[in-house]
Amino acid sequence: MIILYQKIESSQPPDTGRTLKEMEDMLISYTTEIKENNEKLARRINDMDTAASKPAPLTENLRHAQADEQKDKRAAETAAKQDTAADADYSAYNPPLPEETAAQEAAFISSETSRVLSMHQQGFSEADIARQLGIGAGEVHLLLKFYK
Questions:
Q1: C-alpha closest to that of 135 among 115, 121, 107
Q2: Contacts of residue 140, Cβ cutoff 8 Å, sequence gap at least 6
Q3: How many Cβ atoms sit within 10 Å of the Cβ of residue 11?
Q4: Is the pLDDT at 93 greater than 70, yes or no?
Q5: How many other C-beta atoms are found inside a 10 Å radius of the C-beta of residue 140?
Q6: pLDDT tens, 47-91?
Q7: φ, ψ (nearest 5 deg) of residue 99
Q8: Which pairs with CB-CB distance under 8 Å and at least 24 residues apart come from 119-128?
Q9: Which of 135, 109, 132 is nearest to 119 (CA)?
């Protein structure tokens, strides 16, 4: 349908008078719309200038924010006072000292591997180490070989 309309329009000679009138009407409507938008903008700017000259009242959100800030300051001050008091309470504190007993000192028992290595460093033979520790000579040989 659109194609048919375009063919009919293209086959007819252009009406320059009508085209000029349509263009003129369109330009007039655009300029009128721009003029109205400019007037609205001028009114908004004027309203903003008068509003800026008046002192702005505090909004509810701003009042709540200020109240929350004051509560936070008071809470921080209270916490600081409590920390200072707690530091004073613990300044004379002495922790208990561990009791040293003979049982704790003798609780160290060396492993079989460490005993084999220690005896080897002292110069004992593999057979002597095996005999004194009550383990097989092959086991002593493997431990010494493993740690060389």
A1: 115
A2: 116, 126, 129, 130, 133
A3: 7
A4: yes
A5: 23
A6: 888 877 665 555 666 676 777 788 888 877 877 777 666 566 667
A7: -85, 130
A8: 120/144
A9: 132
Query: What is the spatial distance between Cα 74 and Cα 83, in angstroms, rounded to a whole number?
Result: 14
Average pLDDT on 115-120 reads 92
DSSP of 78-116, one letter per residue? HHHHHHHHHHHHTTT--PPPPPP-HHHHTT----HHHHH
- For position 88, what pLDDT does the model report? 61
The residues, any chain, with a CB within 8 Å of residue 30's CB and separated by 6 or more, are none
Rounded distance, CA 131 to CA 125, Å?
A: 10
Say if residues 26 and 34 touch (Cβ distance below 8 Å).
no
State the virtual CA torsion across 60, 65, 69, 75 in degrees, nearest 10. Answer: 80
Structure tokens at 139: 């086991």
